[in-house]
Amino acid sequence: MAKISVIGSSSMDLVVTSTKRPGAGETVLGESFTTVPGGKGANQAVAAARLGADVTMIGRVGDDHFGQQILRNFEENHVRIGYVKPVTHMESGTAHIVLAEGDNSIVVVKAANNEVTPAYVEEALDAIRSSDIVLIQQEIPAETVVYVSEICAKYQIPFLLNPAPAREVEKSVIENATYITPNEHEAAIMFKNMSLQEALRKYPHKLFVTEGSNGVRFFDGEQEVVVPTYKVEAVDTTGAGDTFNAAFAVALADGKSLADSVKFANRAASLSVTKFGAQGGMPTRREVEEQL
Ligand SMILES: Nc1ncnc2c1ncn2[C@@H]1O[C@H](COP(=O)(O)OP(=O)(O)OP(=O)(O)O)[C@@H](O)[C@H]1O
Ligand SMILES: [K+]
């Protein structure tokens, strides 16, 4: 079974639906309220576990009620939580989401996710070193991403950076990464001094740009190729990127070729958009294989 370490955020999404978005100083009546576990790190860990990998999450929660719910959700999805330690006297990360007027507004409070520091991650070095691949995103401090990229380079562990949400990325991290998977917006911010074509050419078989319903673009050493995704009835695209990254990591860790890994990831991500919610739509391995 492929062993994957996911280093990243976990949070609780607090979602209200309303017909109207409140303006400054305004109060409006909402229609519904739900809480659902999220955070890019947690989402990718859950997706990878559903796809059959042996997943260790390396992250932090608060010592609050949300933290307990987040941990329970990991357990229900068979994600190892020995390295998800509660931070005392701190809240879990939260995302405060208003769904109104056909779009969302989100306030993210990082809280315990800020404590996923290099020193904390170092405690999980054994787990990291025994991984077939390490998967990381950017909802944790930038210095932690730098640190992990260095360990992975040192011990020659494949390192997949999903540079989301967008921020500038240290050059050394880009060089150390084995695979980088931005969407188009994140790619434009990461490679702001070059065109997308130039960036793809510079990092053949390494930079994979996801383009939503269009699929995935990369440079194969000779030319730019787009691997189309699958046509589905899209219900909710939340979690598509997280599912793609987890599935890509699982397929690579399983030893699939790059081409087959992109295909597997496209298949998994396209299935995820057919259901509501980020984790709600994440398919099992069987569901993906039946469709391939
Ligand atoms: N409408 C769709 N139909 C089929 N596949 C999709 C669709 N949207 C996304 N996907 C799949 O998911 C992958 C990632 O989507 P996208 O490029 O939108 O990432 P993202 O912007 O990180 O997504 P999100 O932030 O919504 O999770 C795509 O490469 C594709 O495989
Ligand atoms: K979804």
UniProtKB/TrEMBL annotation:
Question: Highest taxon of the source?
Answer: Bacteria
Note describing how the cofactor binds = Requires a divalent cation, most likely magnesium in vivo, as an electrophilic catalyst to aid phosphoryl group transfer. It is the chelate of the metal and the nucleotide that is the actual substrate.
List the subcellular locations.
Answer: Cytoplasm
Q: Does the keyword Kinase apply?
A: yes
The alphabetized UniProt keywords are: ATP-binding, Carbohydrate metabolism, Cytoplasm, Kinase, Magnesium, Metal-binding, Nucleotide-binding, Potassium, Transferase
- The residues that the entry says bind ATP are 183, 210-215, 241-242, 266
Known CDD domains for this protein? ribokinase (cd01174)
Query: How might one describe the regulation of this protein's activity?
Result: Activated by a monovalent cation that binds near, but not in, the active site. The most likely occupant of the site in vivo is potassium. Ion binding induces a conformational change that may alter substrate affinity.
- Residues forming the catalytic site: 242 (proton acceptor)
Boundaries of every Carbohydrate kinase PfkB domain copy: 1-284
> In which residues is K(+) bound?
236, 238, 272, 275, 277
Q: Which cofactor does it need?
A: Mg(2+)
One GO molecular-function entry: ribokinase activity
Where does the chain bind substrate? 11-13, 39-43, 139, 242
- InterPro entries given in the database record: Carboh/pur_kinase_PfkB_CS (IPR002173), PfkB_dom (IPR011611), Ribo/fructo_kinase (IPR002139), Ribokinase (IPR011877), Ribokinase-like (IPR029056)
Pathway as given in its UniProt record: Carbohydrate metabolism; D-ribose degradation; D-ribose 5-phosphate from beta-D-ribopyranose: step 2/2
Q: Give the EC number.
A: 2.7.1.15
Keyword Plastid applies:
no
Q: Hey, which family's this protein in?
A: Belongs to the carbohydrate kinase PfkB family. Ribokinase subfamily.
- Check the record and name the HAMAP family matching this protein: Ribokinase (MF_01987)
Q: What does this protein do?
A: Catalyzes the phosphorylation of ribose at O-5 in a reaction requiring ATP and magnesium. The resulting D-ribose-5-phosphate can then be used either for sythesis of nucleotides, histidine, and tryptophan, or as a component of the pentose phosphate pathway.
Q: How does it assemble?
A: Homodimer.
Q: What is this protein called?
A: Ribokinase
Q: Which organism is it from?
A: Paenibacillus brasilensis
Query: From which lineage does this chain's organism come?
Result: Bacteria, Bacillati, Bacillota, Bacilli, Bacillales
